[in-house]
Design a protein that fits this description.
Layout lengths: L2 H14 L4 H4 L3 H7 L4 H4 L18 H13 L7 H5 L4 H13 L6
Length: about 110
């Protein structure tokens, strides 16, 4: 396979897999500042003390972006999450996702 074909193949996989390059340049500190309202349910280090709420620490950023946008846009319904994310911009969501992805899943 030629170099050009390999490059096109890799690029097409990246595009079709839904990668969002903006997540890679997100602002972790801005995400941390925005996460204050999340702490009550998801814990200050992204590890919930309440069994029914998911741990966010160490989750993949792209997964978190997709879930938060689904709640915000009404594709995923939840009486607690939908109002919490309704005012978030795409940048806010990417920053939050980057912040939680950067945390240690053990809560340390």
């Amino acid at each position: 396979m030629s170099l050009l074909k390999k490059t096109i193949f890799i690029f097409s996989i990246a595009v079709t897999s839904g990668l969002h390059f903006s997540v890679w340049s997100a602002d972790i500190e801005a995400g941390k500042a925005k996460s204050v309202s999340c702490n009550a349910c998801h814990g200050s280090k992204g590890v919930s003390m309440i069994p029914m709420y998911p741990n966010l620490a160490g989750q993949k950023a792209q997964y978190l972006v997709l879930q938060l946008k689904a709640f915000r846009d009404g594709e995923r319904k939840n009486m607690l999450m939908s109002p919490m994310v309704s005012g978030l911009t795409d940048t806010d969501i990417e920053n939050l996702a980057a912040y939680y992805a950067s945390l240690d899943p053990s809560g340390k």
